[in-house]
Amino acid sequence: MDGYRDFQVYVDEKIGLAQQATHVRNVGGFIVQAIRENYQDPVFQARLEERKEQEREAMLNALASELSEKRSALLRQAVRTHPELLERAAERIQSRFARERLARYDSLQAAYRDGGMVTAEINEILAEEFCSELLAPVYAAYEAEKKQILE
Question: HEC states along the chain?
């Protein structure tokens, strides 16, 4: 499969050269000749590489967003299944600002449900201290897909 991707990029480059060429009457013949003789255009190659890098960045951003969504969903599910985790995590909040915000709510559940700083702080504690085994497969899948994108 990887060889096919490289060939596709190679052919795309030659098609791009044909699109840029102004003196060509037979575009198909030009592309065949460009493939046979490995015509190269450094400017076009740089643009192609830049476009590939932008696509890679977009894929990485989408992957990170997906990881964040999956992580949040799993943590919410863990809290619903084991409400005592919320209490245990809240006891470990170190941030003075998060503690002050938490104090403004009638209940810990309301503060967690509203999102924001309290939820972020609790989710970090849950992820690191109480739900690491639950999240491990999600992180592993993320890293594998990230590695594949970067190759």
Answer: CHHHHHHHHHHHHHHHHHHHCCCCCCHHHHHHHHHHHCCCCHHHHHHHHHHHHHHHHHHHHHHHHHHHHHHHHHHHHHHHHCCHHHHHHHHCCCCHHHHHHHHCCCCHHHHHHHCCHHHHHHHHHHHHHHCHHHHHHHHHHHHHHHHHHHC
